[in-house]
Amino acid sequence: MTIHSVKAILESLQKKETSPLDWVEASLAEIANKDGKVQAFLHVDAEGARQRAQALEGSGGLLGVPYALKDNLCTEGMPTTAASRILENYIPPYSATVANKLAAAGGVLVGKTNMDEFAMGSSTENSAFQKTRNPYHLDHVPGGSSGGSAAAVAAGMVPFALGSDTGGSIRQPASFCGVVGLKPTYGRVSRFGLIAFASSLDQIGPFTRTVEDAAYVLQAISGHDPLDSTSAPQPTEDFTAALTGDVKGLRIGVVTDFDMSGVDPEVKAAVDGAIAKLQAAGAEVVEIQLPHSQYAVATYYLIAPAEASSNLARYDGVRYGKRAAGETLLEMYERTRSEGFGIEVKRRIMIGTYALSSGYYDAYYLRAQKMRTLIRQDYEAAFEKCDVIVTPTAPTPAFRFGEKVDNPLQMYLNDVFTIPANLAGLPGISVPCGLTQSGLPIGLQMVGRAFDERTLLRAAHAYEQVRGFEMPAPEVNG
Amino acid sequence: MAFETVIGLEVHVELKTKSKIFCGCRTDFGAPPNTNVCPVCLGHPGTLPVLNQEAVELALKAATALNCKINQDCKFDRKNYFYPDLPKGYQISQYDQPIGEHGYIEIDVNGERKRIGIVRVHLEEDAGKSMHAPDGSHTLVDYNRTGVPLIEIVSEPDIRSPEEARLYLEGIRSIMQYCGISDCRMEEGSLRCDANISLRPVGQKEFGQKAELKNINSFRFVQKGLEYEVERQTQILSQGGTVVQETRRFDEATQTTVSMRSKEEAHDYRYFPEPDLVRLRVDDAWLQRVRESLPELPLQKRDRYQNELQLPAYDAGVLTSDIEIAQYFEAVVDAGIDPKSASNWVMSDVLGYANANGLTLSAFPVAPAQLAGLIQQVTAGKISIKQGRDVFKIMCETGKDAVTVIREQGFEQISDEGALIAIVEEAIANNPKSVEDYRAGKEKAIGALVGQVMKATKGKANPAVVNKLILERIQA
Fold first, then answer.
1. Are A314 and B45 contacting, i.e. CB atoms less than 8 angstroms apart?
2. In chain A, which residues have their Cβ closer than 8 Å to the Cβ of B42?
3. Which of B36, B279, B364, B400 is most buried, judged by most C-beta within 10 A?
């Protein structure tokens, strides 16, 4: 039994050719076989998954489909660490809304995946526990921060997994690992139970092997949640119904004022090729400008750390998680946080604390918020002229371990194409659009209007139909 | 040199909601430690706040009752600081857009009405309670209070004496109680007060260096603590010294204020808009509903008692000092009792018994209608006032109606002349000395005769009737 698409599993189950337990066993076997090398999982709940598969009832939309969750999504009774020492032994007393929704839809959780600590990073190298490898090239990173989820799906260990995307943390690893990664509109999916990095930017979304699967999963996890005041009142939609395969008349926006100097030639060629395919399929290509997006990375690296500095204040050793000994309260705080947080997390707490300090607030945080408004307005103007905007997901394919980890700025610039959509709250998707000569996947990013995932998914799905190649399965052997 | 006192108060009031401001936990005071808690108010990773509509409603009521301009579109902010009783490492509060601004209340100072400005009223969440071991070895934290909704009411520096400060605080309390916003029990911490106090030479415009007085936990101590500060600062300034800007606390044992000696580093709270909540919008209809739901406020009620019910200022003040007293009094009046009689009975007998027994009027054993029944018995001359007082005590203890008590205890007053004549004549016959004295001009001598009759009737005789019968017989 090969784990391919969610759809294929559902069809097989519906025909009673297989049982939910069969798929859980298949998933566990793949994990046993491959995860020694890939290291995508921080926690595998084999016994629990078997029990859940056997206890399934009802007729949920994902009945019997195994899946994984990024380890910043809380699961009652199951360790949830955000890949941080400070939460090493933390077991949440409640489950995230997405976990409850997937359980209600009949999905079977098999485990929790590795990530950059508190979702801060673009390579998953910032995990306090292990390095996840790119299934297509084991000496390359899987991208991040949701690298574990991307690698688990790419390696065929689960048909889908959830990640979170604050500045590209779903789309960039999807691009690096050759899978589909969807970041929904801010507010589309409840954040309740997502360990916060930057509250105004974080959004949960799926990794899948096909766009259609992404639509399935989005349907299951989206919708208003009374427990998240920022979740939108929009009703859940039938996203799969939007996948007509037709892009005739769809206006594809190509950004003419992005600085493409840092873009790898192979990436550029693959993206240009994808645009040509869409055009050939009947889409109209229009040139658009996003003049303020050149400030997006700078803007993001003020707003996200500012919110993070506050969001991570709760890890103080008092109520849960790690506590280091100290003679005084202050000493306990300092030791707990010094030992509990990794270097990148500390760097961002420092940046954020600085940006919010009195005397600097107006110059940094407030200015960044104003820029955020300008970036959002750019998109509004662009969407007068087009329906989706197409760019590379990342300027490069997956890089090697250690290549950027000592140069934070280089690492941050890897998110140059993904960050603007988070600042504007827009939905974005990464779809595989080719492989480099050395066999590394390349991702095409599409960004759509707020709450118009239907058009976004339609465009991505149509591209998938006409792109003219199948992603080869990576060869990972235990 | 003469100095003028300048005081501003920051008052925290816990709102009387059923559940906490951002989660569904209960808010009842006195529950066992850490039983009214959940992942949200304990600040567990991934949890999010959801604003309690009732808390907004009560804050709106408060801001409206305090004559504030309502910001119908406002927001919440995070106030960041580390402390074990603050689970998230930040308090959700309102920084630059409070729900209410530019209000005032009025107080009566020595018979004159004075307006005290209110800078702002904002909504926020309470923190938990730290309990430090006396030997300093450890601290325990109770998170039951974490997330209980609070409003902070900041006054203008319009208060000019410790007495005015107390009157202002009492004014705030009675408005909150009248509107059902808060119990305002200082001993339970549902009303807390910090004061800023400075002195300046009379006539000077600029404020002097201020001290902040914290942790004042009774109305009396507010005045006491500030009085001590006036004395202390006057002494410093008179000797040419300068007041140190610091935080001080009132020490009950010595009745003085002492420096808290906390390192006076300026806190940088790094306020920024709370991204987990959406803007708070109050539409016109909601605001209108709140305005219409406000009851008659204490000062209005007091004016009405004086002007319409013709009560003395003192009575009006006492009766309106607490909404429960006013409600009780009004119920007695509504039962047909003349306002002054009702006032006398409520102020002396009802409040006397309630205070002596630690009762609140909402749980008072004699209902207003029962008290009205008793007063009617007295007014009709069925019993004397003195008997009435005794009947009242029995009613308090038994909960029985006046008529029942009077009958059971044989308290009926004897006003029938026919029943009294024989006793009166016997008293006159037995006390020729008193009769003689009276006739000699000592009018008081009649008292002894009346006393004889009262004694003989075990206090039941109507003194007025007895008086009349005696006079008819000895004046001749």
1. yes
2. 319
3. B36
